[in-house]
Amino acid sequence: MNPVLRIVVVYVLILVSMRILGKRDFGELSPFDLVTLLLIPEIVSSFLNQQDTSLTNAVVGVTTLLMMVFATSIISQLNKRAENLITGVPTVLVQRGRFLEKNMNKERVTPEEIFAEMHNNGIESLEQVKWAILESDGKIAIIAQD
Questions:
Q1: Residue 52: CA atoms inside 13 Å, Cβ hemisphere, count?
Q2: Are 132 and 117 in contact (CB under 8 A)?
Q3: Strand, coil or helix: what is 120?
Q4: What pLDDT, on a 0 to 100 scale, did the predictor assign at position 129?
Q5: Per-domain residue ranges of the chain
Q6: Which of 10, 32, 73, 110 is least crowded, fewest Cβ atoms below 10 Å from its Cβ?
Q7: Residue 44 and residue 135: Cα distance in Å, rounded?
Q8: Average per-residue pLDDT in the chain?
Q9: What's the burial of 1, exposed, middle or buried (CB within 10 Å: 0-12/13-18/19+)?
């Protein structure tokens, strides 16, 4: 039971850490993809480094991790509040041509990042932006003025 408890604690710790770090730091991978990719080799190698000859502990560890990912996805699907807590909600960064500095500071997004995304969308000035939204996946969506 000790490996299961250790993995649950590490999973929750990394999930909370990723939420604290913010959307922009992990924008390309979902938190669950990143947790799974990072922890599976760590779980297996930790058992190998401890010279534990039992492969059962490693299998139990990986299975526990995958079950935690599966349970988290089910909870997110069934409960909107849990989904918002786990995956985050979109954040408005620009409203009608004006930066919302409080939101930008909270999400640690610089004006240069918004300008770069504006230019990728063919928008030259901030006044042409109706909305700039930091999506839950870390990408910035730009909506031009009419």
A1: 16
A2: yes
A3: helix
A4: 97
A5: 2-87, 91-144
A6: 110
A7: 34
A8: 82
A9: exposed
Nearest to 91 by CA among 142, 132, 145, 31: 132
Side chain identity, residue 58: A
Name the pTM for this structure. Answer: 0.65
C-alpha closest to that of 136 among 32, 10, 64: 32
Structure tokens at 27: 């924008």
List, for residues 33-43, the tens digit of each pLDDT value: 777 777 777 77
Mean pLDDT of 123-143: 93
pLDDT in tens, 50-103: 666 566 777 787 788 878 878 888 898 899 999 888 888 999 999 999 999 999
Question: Tokens standing for 30?
Answer: 């979902």
Cα–Cα distance, 109 to 119 (Å, whole number):
16
- Tokens in use for 66? 């995958």
Phi/psi for 141 (5° steps) reads -95, 135
